[in-house]
Design a protein that fits this description.
binds zinc ion; 44% helix; 57 residues; elongated; two-stranded antiparallel sheet; alpha+beta; 2 helices
Length: 57
């Protein structure tokens, strides 16, 4: 089953490229699986960290 990034539509095939597929983030929301590629995961982590940094001030 091909994984498709929710944000940039990048794809990875876990059957042919399991190592890359493992680095992707996946989550289950309301019974729907969401996948996120590595660059989008990093970008989102930065967003979350930026919000925490703002809240800490
Ligand atoms: Zn992506």
């Amino acid at each position: 089953m091909l994984l498709t990034c929710d944000f940039c539509s990048a794809t990875v095939d876990p059957t042919t490229d399991p190592a890359s597929a493992l680095t992707w983030s996946s989550s289950l929301e309301r019974g729907v699986a969401h996948h996120m590629c590595v660059p989008c995961t990093r970008a989102q982590v930065r967003d979350i960290e930026a919000k925490f940094a703002l809240n800490a001030r």
